[in-house]
Every structure is written in C-alpha cells, then in structure tokens.
Amino acid sequence: MAIQVKDTHALGTIAEGGWAAMGDGIVDWKSLWPLFDTTPADHLVVEHDEPEGWRRIAQRSYDYLVACGARG
User: Distance between alpha carbon 27 and the CA centroid of its chain, in Å?
Assistant: First the structure.
C-alpha cells in the first residue's frame, strides 16, 4: 500500500506550475510525518506534475524524507 504525496509553492508561483519538491513547498510535512506510521502504507510516492528536472525533484524529495526519518 502507498501514500501519494505532493507539495506546492505559495499561491501565485508560476515556476513548475506551482508544484514543489517535498519539503520545499507549503505543506507542513514534519507535523504530518507521524501520521504516516498510523497507516498500513509501506511506500510513499512523490508526485510533481510539471518538474523542470525530475532527478532534482526526486533527489530533493528523497533527501527531505530521509531527514524526516524515512527508512530507505
């Protein structure tokens, strides 16, 4: 089972359609992180609708998740 996560920049941001790497946007993931362990999910899927560089988005999101305590 997986949880799909997305993050956005502040309203009015045009770059990358307003989407952000996980941890670079407005969602307070640090307060949500403990809730992930209360679900049966064993994967997080990061989505970004308009990345200018998918590798950068993937790496930034991964680094943020590890900093939050995710197990790789």
Answer: 9
